[in-house]
UniProtKB/TrEMBL annotation:
<dbReference type="InterPro" id="IPR003423">
    <property type="entry name" value="OMP_efflux"/>
</dbReference>
<feature type="coiled-coil region">
    <location>
        <begin position="148"/>
        <end position="184"/>
    </location>
</feature>
<keyword id="KW-0998">Cell outer membrane</keyword>
<feature type="compositionally biased region" description="Pro residues">
    <location>
        <begin position="484"/>
        <end position="499"/>
    </location>
</feature>
<feature type="region of interest" description="Disordered">
    <location>
        <begin position="223"/>
        <end position="245"/>
    </location>
</feature>
<dbReference type="GO" id="GO:0009279">
    <property type="term" value="C:cell outer membrane"/>
</dbReference>
<comment type="similarity">
    <text>Belongs to the outer membrane factor (OMF) (TC 1.B.17) family.</text>
</comment>
<dbReference type="GO" id="GO:0015562">
    <property type="term" value="F:efflux transmembrane transporter activity"/>
</dbReference>
<dbReference type="GO" id="GO:1990281">
    <property type="term" value="C:efflux pump complex"/>
</dbReference>
<keyword id="KW-0472">Membrane</keyword>
<feature type="compositionally biased region" description="Low complexity">
    <location>
        <begin position="227"/>
        <end position="242"/>
    </location>
</feature>
<dbReference type="InterPro" id="IPR051906">
    <property type="entry name" value="TolC-like"/>
</dbReference>
<keyword id="KW-0175">Coiled coil</keyword>
<keyword id="KW-0813">Transport</keyword>
<protein>
    <recommendedName>
        <fullName>Outer membrane efflux protein</fullName>
    </recommendedName>
</protein>
<feature type="region of interest" description="Disordered">
    <location>
        <begin position="434"/>
        <end position="508"/>
    </location>
</feature>
<keyword id="KW-1134">Transmembrane beta strand</keyword>
Length: 508
């Protein structure tokens, strides 16, 4: 009976421990899943200010269209007046009042037509520009996502190197104490451990910076873990299509920056025509209803009138011709910029394919080098334990293995970024159709939109993060990538709605 309290205490402790373990497993089960590339891009398009600003510019352009349309519509205005006189009128009143209601309707206003056309083309240019801005943001997010993954892999490589260095240090210390090796072996292993520790600390800082950059693009903090985009890696290793006129033509149709340039050219050309329309006269009609409440017994309480207004500026001191000269030069400048951008599409595709080919070959070589370096490291470690190799040989083998593994990860990053860059040049978004099907915005009604994502720049000028050197991710110019699916239609798509993300088509 005296053992009963002890048994109850033991059972209570056991139940509390079981509940604690079950609660821990439940918390792990409720942990957030790894962040995927698709979700990261979706969050960036939802929370990043660059994405939120794009539809606002379209809204501002819509206001300009409404303002230009007002030149064709009537206007209605009302006015009133009250006069207090010191002397009485003939009816003995000091206060007199009147009111008027006036309507104006333009009948012939030639310059309003090119102004309205300019506003419409400017609106379409802003719509395509909004798509391009979101597209650039998506590519920037994808590049930052890949840099974070590479930083994590490089940190893992450095940590494995540190573990091997510590194990070799213990082995060398034991052999030195047993007088099976010289004290220099222990010293060299200590140096290798210190160098490995320093590399781990440096890569930890690099990983933190990469997460901060990704969080800035996503619009909220990102702590990981991240899911590896296996589909992107497989597509990058598969390569891209061969160059052809059809591929280039489809890329030109999909590129929102090129479509925006076309609309800007059309807007400036319409603006250049407006000064010539001022040579024609303008004709308008107006009507007025005037009410005088205290008109008296002999006056009328209201009065109606209508009139036609003809205005013809025969000579305006050369202002319209000066405006014409300025606007024609601006339109020609924009037309040349559009032509240059159109020519750059083929160049961008060629550069992207060349970069992808080189990156794929470098990645394959890096894979072979890693296999050889790992085998050499293992063999040298066995020989050292048998006393058939020196410590310096073991240190060199481990350093070569670390360098090969770092080169493999940096080559993987270069290949994946090359794949993204080729998709950018093709006018596609960072994801293929299957991965992006649940992530892309709905295309606008009334026409097919170009394939999405990232802003009015060519692939070579798009901001990106580059390939890190010696295991450290850094910013630079990304390589190119493999084209995914492309739309088969040859009809130019209609501009998307504000904030919409273009869709994709079939494989080229």
């Amino acid at each position: 009976m005296r053992r009963a309290p002890a048994v109850r205490w033991f059972l209570s402790l056991l139940s509390c421990t079981a509940l604690f373990l079950l609660d821990g497993e439940a918390r792990e089960a409720r942990a957030d899943p790894p962040l995927t590339l698709e979700e990261a891009i979706k969050q960036a398009l939802t929370y990043n200010e660059r994405s939120l600003q794009a539809p606002l510019r379209v809204e501002a352009a819509e206001g300009q269209v409404e303002r230009a349309r007002a030149a064709f519509l009537p206007s209605l205005s009302a006015s009133g007046a009250a006069v207090l006189n010191a002397a009485e009128d003939f009816e003995g009143r000091h206060l007199s009042a009147s009111a008027a209601l006036t309507v104006n309707q333009p009948i012939i206003n030639p310059s309003a037509f090119p102004s309205y056309a300019q506003a419409r083309h400017s609106r379409e240019a802003e719509k395509w520009g909004a798509v391009q801005d979101r597209r650039v943001l998506a590519f920037d997010t994808a590049r930052a996502f890949l840099v974070v993954l590479t930083s994590e892999r490089l940190l893992s490589v450095a940590e494995r190197r540190l573990e091997r260095a510590k194990a070799n240090q213990q082995n060398a210390q034991a052999r030195t104490e047993a007088q099976l090796a010289s004290s220099n072996d222990a010293t060299r292993s200590l140096i290798e451990t210190a160098s490995s520790s320093r590399e781990v600390v440096r890569l930890q800082g690099t990983l933190t910076q990469a997460y901060l950059n990704l969080g800035f693009l996503v619009g909220k903090p990102v702590t990981g873990p991240l899911a590896t985009p296996e589909r992107t890696t497989r597509a990058a290793r598969a390569g891209g299509p061969r160059s052809s006129e059809e591929i280039i033509r489809r890329a030109e149709q999909r590129r929102p920056d090129l479509r925006a340039a076309e609309e800007r050219t059309a807007a400036l050309e319409a603006s250049a025509e407006e000064p010539l329309y001022r040579l024609a006269p303008t004709l308008g009609a107006s009507g007025q209803l005037r009410v005088v409440p205290n008109a008296g017994s002999t006056g009328r309480a209201y009065d109606l009138s209508a009139q036609l207004n003809l205005n013809w500026t025969i000579y305006d001191a050369g202002a319209r011709y000066a405006d014409r000269k300025t606007r024609v030069a601006q339109a020609k400048t924009q037309a040349l910029a559009e032509r240059q951008l159109r020519r750059s599409v083929a160049v961008d595709l060629g550069l992207a394919r060349a970069s992808l080919k080189a990156a794929r070959e470098a990645f394959q070589i890096a894979e072979q080098a890693v296999v050889a370096a790992r085998a050499n490291s293992s063999e040298t470690e066995i020989l050292y334990q048998q006393g058939l190799a020196r410590a310096i040989e073991l240190v060199d083998a481990n350093a070569s293995r670390y360098e090969a593994e770092v080169n493999l990860e940096t080559a993987r990053l270069a290949m994946e970024q090359a794949y993204l860059e080729l998709r950018y040049a093709l006018g596609l978004d960072p994801l293929d159709d299957q991965a992006a099907s649940g992530n892309a915005s709905n295309p606008p009604a009334g026409g097919e939109a170009p394939a999405q994502p990232a802003p009015g720049t060519t692939a070579s000028s798009a901001p990106a993060t580059g390939t890190p050197a010696t295991g450290t991710p850094a910013t630079g110019t990304p390589a190119t990538g493999t084209p995914p699916n492309q739309p088969a239609t040859s009809t130019p798509p209609n501009p998307p709605a504000p904030g919409a993300t273009p869709s994709q088509g079939s494989n080229p």
